[in-house]
């Protein structure tokens, strides 16, 4: 995706199926996509046993995209007479020695995770991203999924440093027992890969993977159905210009900001 494609992404009214404001801020502040935010919950009945970390983040990102798509179909159909343009689902995991480190269940659990990460020196952060594009058939979608991997290096921590960090409370709310946005940044010595991926959304990879051609087709179809003028692309790489403006209120009932 080139910067000239940003207007197409905005006009397509894409939706992030997530309650994470960090992901929303990355998408909307970094590339100014004006994505709508539609939180979706995953049922506890989803069987994720036996999944390898990469398979896990991809499967959960797919489930989020599928549920977000289903949630938005009625509102998009009513407003645009067609399915949603693009629903984004994402899932991030901190992985050490092939095992996923979720949020700690106790302070002892947080200490254990931090000690293990410190002793290992490096670990991986994986984010699976699923892009569900609306299809011509009612309720149908085309799914594209990818995973970005970033390597994170920790410095050696003393027991006192671990105790002080756990006492801040930050580890208890963070996968892997650390937050790179907060005090956790003081124990990270290096990153190989996308920093935004560690935060929860690999925006650089998304820019490469998103199908702006599909989004442009959606914008054109919506404009025609709403009786709005559409400027046809003049040359390869030119932006499809539409009179559709991003709305102040999300089609799915959520504020766009």
List the helices and strands and how they pair.
Blueprint: H1 6-11, E1 15-16, H2 21-30, E2 36-37, H3 53-80, E3 86-96, E4 99-101, H4 107-120, E5 122-134, E6 141-154, H5 159-167, E7 188-192, H6 195-199, H7 203-209, H8 212-225, E8 230-231, E9 241-242
Parallel strand pairs: 1-2, 1-3
Antiparallel strand pairs: 3-4, 3-5, 5-6, 6-7, 8-9
Explain this structure.
The structure is a single chain. By secondary structure, the protein is of the alpha+beta class. 36% of the residues lie in helices and 21% in strands. The strands form two sheets. Strands 1, 2, 3, 4, 5, 6 and 7 form a seven-stranded mixed beta sheet that branches. Strands 8-9 form a two-stranded antiparallel ribbon. Strand 5 (122-134) and strand 6 (141-154) form a beta hairpin. The protein is elongated, with a radius of gyration of 20 Å.
Count of all domains? 1
Q: Which consecutive residue ranges, at least 5 long each, have pLDDT under 50?
A: 230-257
Q: What is the string of SSEs from the N terminus onward?
A: HEHEHEEHEEHEHHHEE
Overall 3D shape: elongated
The portion of residues assigned to helices is 25-40%
Q: How many distinct helices?
A: 8
Strand content: 15-25%
Radius of gyration: 20 Å
């Amino acid at each position: 995706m080139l910067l000239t494609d940003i207007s197409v992404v905005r006009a397509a009214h894409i939706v992030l199926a997530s309650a994470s404001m960090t992901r929303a801020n990355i998408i909307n502040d970094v590339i100014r996509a004006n994505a709508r935010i539609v939180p979706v919950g995953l049922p506890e009945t989803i069987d994720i046993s036996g999944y390898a970390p990469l398979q896990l983040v991809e499967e959960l990102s797919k489930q989020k995209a599928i549920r977000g798509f289903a949630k938005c179909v009625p509102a998009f159909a009513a407003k645009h007479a067609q399915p949603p343009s693009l629903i984004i689902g994402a899932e991030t995991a901190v992985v050490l020695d092939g095992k996923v480190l979720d949020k700690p269940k106790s302070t002892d659990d947080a200490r254990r995770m931090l000690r293990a990460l410190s002793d290992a020196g490096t670990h991986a952060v994986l984010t699976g991203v699923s892009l569900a594009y609306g299809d011509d058939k009612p309720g149908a979608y085309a799914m594209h999924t990818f995973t970005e991997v970033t390597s994170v290096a920790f410095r050696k921590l003393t027991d006192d440093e671990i105790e002080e960090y756990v006492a801040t409370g930050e580890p208890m709310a963070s996968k892997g027992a650390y937050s790179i946005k907060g005090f956790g940044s003081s124990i990270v010595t290096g990153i190989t890969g996308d920093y935004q991926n560690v935060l929860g959304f690999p925006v650089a990879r998304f820019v490469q993977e998103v199908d702006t051609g599909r989004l442009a087709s959606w914008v054109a179809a919506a404009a025609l159905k709403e009786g709005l003028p559409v400027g046809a692309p003049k040359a390869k790489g030119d932006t499809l210009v539409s009179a559709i403006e991003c709305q102040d209120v999300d089609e799915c009932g959520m504020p766009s900001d």
